[in-house]
Amino acid sequence: MTTIAVVTAGLSQPSSTRLLADKLATAVSSVLPNVDIEVIELRDLAIDVTKNMLTGFPSPALRAAIDTVTAADGLIAVTPVFTASYSGLFKSFFDVLDQKALDGKPVLIGATGGTERHSLVLDFALRPLFAYLRAEPVATAVYAASSDWASPGDLDVRASRAGREFAARLSSEGAPVAAPDSGFVPFEQLLAAGE
Fold first, then answer.
1. What is the residue range of 62's domain?
2. In the chain, how many domains are there?
3. What are the pLDDT digits (tens) for 104-126?
4. pTM for the predicted model, two decimal places
5. What are the CA-CA distances from residue 106 to residues 47, 68, 126, 143, 193 (Å)?
6. Which of 31, 6, 24 is nearest to 156 (CA)?
7. CATH, residue 88
8. Measured distance CA(166)–CA(108) in Å, rounded
9. Is 73 helix (H, G, I), strand (E, B) or coil?
10. pLDDT tens string 74-89
11. Which residues contact 36 (CB under 8 A, 6 or more apart)?
């Protein structure tokens, strides 16, 4: 069974950040069988994260969240955008992880914000953070502006593509995972058929 930890840093309830995290998790589980998804709402751990930053000791609830992320086969991480970057709560959670906790772990990154202007946060803030932590973000990251929720067709397409890439990383063979009924045939299969 493949395990995926979903870390979402939305502050309101419900939040568009959680909605995007759920959309990404659904996109992955639709193409990857036997997946166990565990969601971590950082909003519920805000005080625990702060206390850990001050004392160096995690509460039992924060320890459980850290263990979930560390033990997972892959990570979906979604943050709201504040002042053109990830939220402080999001960053603080990853600050309390052991520096080697995400070594080589596949990560699907996402962010939410009011306007499309902030979409560059994916490449200028989130990718460098996870590169520093030696994680392996997939090529497609997903940003959802407020306008994307009114007509989510394009958002669904982006989430589906990111989900397939992430599922391919997590699959045991590492082969591309096609969308259902997409007609996609991996190049390796085309070459093998010609032999």
1. 2-193
2. 1
3. 999 999 999 999 989 999 999 99
4. 0.87
5. 28, 14, 14, 18, 31
6. 24
7. 3.40.50.360
8. 6
9. coil
10. 999 999 999 889 999 9
11. 1, 2, 3, 4
Neighbours of 79 (CB within 10 A): 32
Torsion angle of the four alpha carbons 152, 142, 24, 19, in this order, in degrees rounded to the nearest 10:
-60
**Structure token pair of residue 51:** 């206390």
Length of the chain: 195
Rounded CA-CA distance 153/157 in Å is 6
Residue bearing tokens 């306007």: 115
Query: Can you tell me the distance from the alpha carbon of 65 to that of 67, in angstroms, rounded to the nearest whole number?
Result: 5
Selection from 134, 105, 131, 109 nearest residue 120 by Cα: 109
Structure tokens, 135: 């994680």
Alpha carbons 91 and 98: distance in angstroms, whole number: 13
Show the tokens assigned to 30: 């639709």
